[in-house]
Amino acid sequence: MMKRLFIGLLILLAAECFSEGLQLPTVFSDHMVLQRDQSVPVWGSGTPGEKITVEFAGQSKTAVVDSSNHWKIMLDPVPASSEPRKLAVSGSGEAVSFSDVLVGDVWLCSGQSNMEWSMDRTENAQESIDAADYPLIRLYDTPRRVAGEPAGRIDAAWTRCSSERVSTFSGVAYYFGRKLHQDLDVPVGLWLSAYGGTKIEAWTPPCGLKSVELLADTVNLPPLSGEDKEDRHIPTVLYNGMLHDNVPFAIRGAIWYQGESNHTEGSLYVERSRALINGWRELWGRDFPFYFVQIAPYQYKEEDARILPVFWEAQAEVARTIPNTGMAVISEYTTLDNIHPVNKEVPGERLALLAEAGTYGMDVEFSGPVFQGLEKSDGTLTVAFDFADGLTTRNGKMPNWFEIAGDDGAFYLAQAEIKGNCVVLHSPRVPHPQAVRFAWHKRAVPNLINAAGLPAVSFRSQ
């Protein structure tokens, strides 16, 4: 009898060690938003051979746990709905359910400190927080965590947007989600995963790094150990710790605000962005939209004034060359002595404009004037712009921050005059101008805008 009891106890202990039972990632919780109009993956762990059933919105789908303890089920697409529903998951003698589940649009909101920056530290904070009663907006805030290998469960859960909850949530993400919710009239889920002072490569999964030849070798950096285990700059460590376990929770797209920690890298940032976007899109299995903020003008102490414009140029190149991306420019809402502009409503809403135009097909103005071409004539340069209807200046003065150069490459400030969708430039110091650059200085806050009030993008013609 004792022998049988002992054997039974061993079997129970072995089973407990072999499987922790039915579990799902924490991105599945009460109050979550499931992505509308897409097949929605639901996955988790269980006991090998166990039959798992997922029920939602009249659907009942089954799968069997594989030998690695994993299972995955794809729910059929469901239209947007603000009706609170239940998602039920059951196995052999175990069951979990999630209540108050909505169907709408889910956006991943990621990056460094300017994305992480909380509502209670933003401009007009208390007024905005007091008005943040939006129960159909849901918030998921990922704890900051570094991991040398893909890490397990993330300690977070979805909550309803309220004054209490939003005060410590990302200002940029909140304002982005608020505008989409108001303009689209659907539930919005904001999945925040941001960490201040971090480099883009830390957020990039291995498959993304491998997709870009220039960066492929960085996948093989040694694992974290000892003093290095808290280094937020090592490739993949924030993907491992703050994204991996919740991928591929269904999303409509991603917004991104990062760059200060990479801003000295110039054109290399194009390849780093390509790696991040390639990697995320591969893991999600679709080329979802990716919208980002161009970092603001900033003093950067004694740093050469031209380093930051070269980085802006790289960010613009990302938007120009990588499909289904877009860049929000916030140059006029800077704080030159503070790397964290306190106005987060402007970047959040400009990201939303990009989404409304590019993802939802709405007829909205989403870009400021963008350099289109250059015409040279005797003594003048005529700069043509796209997105330049109603070209004007913010303060009614002559357009500023234009410089022109002759064959010697020496740039001088230019006199500028708006003519239609163009700006005509000349300078007595440059009798035969050949090149132009605009806002080519780390402290440049140019006044050129279009009729929608959106600022012109910095550029150089050569």
Tell me briefly what this model is.
The chain has helices at residues 2-18, 113-116, 125-130, 163-166, 171-184, 206-210, 237-242, 268-284, 307-321, 345-358, and strands spanning 33-35, 40-45, 51-56, 59-64, 70-75, 81-90, 95-111, 134-141, 159-161, 188-194, 253-257, 290-293, 325-328, 370-377, 380-386, 392-393, 402-405, 411-413, 415-419, 422-426, 435-438, 448-449, 459-460.
How does this structure look, described?
- The protein has 462 residues and is an alpha/beta fold.
- Strands 1, 3, 4, 6, 7, 8, 9, 10, 11, 12 and 13 form an eleven-stranded mixed beta sheet that branches. A four-stranded antiparallel beta sheet has the order 14-15-20-19, with no helix packed on it. A four-stranded antiparallel beta sheet has the order 18-17-21-23, with helices on one face.
- It has three domains: 83 residues, Immunoglobulins (Immunoglobulin-like); 254 residues, SGNH hydrolase (Rossmann fold, 3-Layer(aba) Sandwich), CATH 3.40.50; 91 residues, Immunoglobulin-like (Sandwich).
- Helix 5 crosses helix 10 and helix 8 packs parallel to helix 9.
- The chain is built from ten helices and 23 strands.
- The N terminus is likely disordered.
- Keywords: Hydrolase, Signal.
- GO terms for molecular function: sialate O-acetylesterase activity.
